[in-house]
Design a protein that fits this description.
113 residues, alpha+beta, two-stranded antiparallel ribbon, 1 helix, globular
Amino acid sequence: MEPRAVPRGKGRPGSARARVAGTPRSDEPDLELLLLRLLDELVFLRDARGLLLHVEEIEVAPGPPARLAGILSGARLDRQLRAIRSEVKAATAHGLRVARAPAGWEAGVTLDV
């Protein structure tokens, strides 16, 4: 995913800061590994590129292979503006689960902090 700048005022309503957005695409053998890859990508983008992103839209095809396409948005991480008490270092496969639920999907994941 290659993040790009979004003009001020675009993205999340009420935004006063410059926004960034990206379009992740991925495929993995199953949904659990797909979730793990997405979470690890969010951690990588924060650590390596200084981006604090969230999932704005996502489309998932359960597969096999499981496929994901979506939109991430957020802002450059400004540690003067946002105090982060504990940071996620990685998502782990321990206890990882993804299952269909009455209202959509449920997932469980363990995060290393």
